[in-house]
């Protein structure tokens, strides 16, 4: 993986995702895992997310369909009773008006994941499937291919917030191997709780192991901190975050990761542009733009790109070179890979094995 080829953090991120899907955790036997990207809370998105999963629980999660369950749906299906009951008696008060709960009940009914009936003008519900505990651990990885001092400074503050909040079980920084005897990332001022993963070619190794955080315990959200350097004596501000809030957020993140995986990037890009190419690098299918002659970012590869040019219709009609044109072919290829990765995790197969 040459330096030019990983200029963009986006391409680096895809390679990290691909490596994690096959090999997580570093320097141990692989465990069943689902990998996704760009997920988190409203104020914080992690680049790469690794969900370590229980294969049996994951297979049972499948009964609820491939779409994610949002927090309102989770409230309903996780608390639904085994026997018919009036929904207001069966469910804990959600903290928001019951009419929204009724909407979620109807949605769950239409997705066929909850039994619903009307008796004496009352909506009654019954569980169809028990929602399983399928997420074992959540690992957040921040990708910085070129982790120099200024990148480390910018990242350090954010990582300190991640550690204080303790929403993930572990936090890592992934960076590109430099080949130096001591990786520069180790010399940067990053929180000691954060692991350092050095990526080289198709491999990666842990150069600093992270400390386990405590997602089951209360966390601290840093809302404001002194910005005036060493002489600034103003106080930082903090907020207490309950274990319940964290548990709900973790499950919401896991559900989104389950739905999206990491290959969904193509959904927001323009593989139907004639300049769009998918190139295999370090085992990952990485987008490449023929017009820019480099890897494009997901943000620039959009309908507003000035160089966007639609695929010629002939590409689609003549089955060139893959049936349906290259854009469609790339989408289908990524979808097939996503399905295979899911099947591997459900079967509990080692992610390193190829099927
Ligand atoms: S020209 Fe623009 S839209 Fe087309 S592949 Fe390149 S970045 Fe994407």
UniProtKB/TrEMBL annotation:
Q: Quote the biased-composition stretches of kind Basic and acidic residues, using this chain's numbering.
A: 213-235, 329-345
Q: Where is this region: Disordered?
A: 209-235, 302-355
- InterPro entries from the UniProt entry: DUF5787
Origin: domain of life: Archaea
Record-given protein name: DUF5787 family protein
Taxonomic source organism: Halalkalicoccus tibetensis
């Amino acid at each position: 993986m040459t330096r030019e080829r990983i200029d963009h953090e986006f391409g680096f991120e895809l390679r990290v995702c691909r490596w994690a899907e096959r090999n997580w955790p570093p320097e141990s036997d692989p465990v069943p895992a689902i990998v996704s990207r760009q997920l988190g809370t409203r104020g914080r998105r992690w680049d790469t997310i690794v969900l370590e999963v229980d294969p049996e629980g994951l297979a049972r999660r499948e009964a609820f369909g491939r779409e994610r369950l949002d927090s309102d749906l989770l409230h309903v299906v996780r608390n639904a009773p085994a026997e018919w009951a009036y929904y207001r008696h069966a469910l804990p008060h959600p903290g928001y008006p019951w009419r929204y709960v009724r909407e979620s009940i109807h949605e769950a009914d239409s997705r066929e994941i909850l039994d619903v009936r009307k008796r004496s003008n009352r909506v009654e519900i019954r569980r169809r499937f028990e929602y399983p505990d399928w997420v074992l651990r959540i690992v957040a990885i921040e990708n910085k291919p070129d982790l120099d001092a200024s990148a480390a400074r910018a990242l350090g503050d954010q990582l300190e917030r991640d550690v204080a909040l303790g929403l993930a079980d572990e936090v890592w920084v992934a960076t590109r191997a430099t080949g130096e005897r001591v990786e520069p990332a180790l010399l940067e001022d990053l929180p000691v709780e954060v692991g350092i993963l050095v990526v080289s070619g198709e491999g990666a190794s842990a150069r600093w192991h992270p400390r386990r955080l405590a997602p089951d315990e209360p966390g601290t959200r840093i809302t404001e901190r002194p910005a005036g350097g060493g002489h600034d004596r103003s106080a930082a501000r903090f907020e207490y975050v309950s274990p319940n809030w964290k548990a709900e957020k973790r499950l919401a993140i896991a559900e989104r990761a389950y739905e999206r995986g990491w290959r969904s990037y193509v959904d927001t890009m323009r593989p139907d542009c004639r300049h769009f190419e998918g190139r295999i690098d370090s085992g990952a299918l990485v987008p490449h733009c023929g017009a820019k002659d480099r890897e494009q970012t997901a943000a620039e590869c959009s309908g507003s790109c000035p160089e966007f040019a639609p695929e010629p219709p002939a590409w689609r009609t003549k089955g060139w070179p893959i049936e349906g044109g290259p854009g469609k072919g790339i989408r289908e290829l990524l979808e097939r890979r996503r399905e295979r990765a899911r099947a591997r995790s459900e079967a509990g197969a080692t992610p390193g094995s190829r099927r």
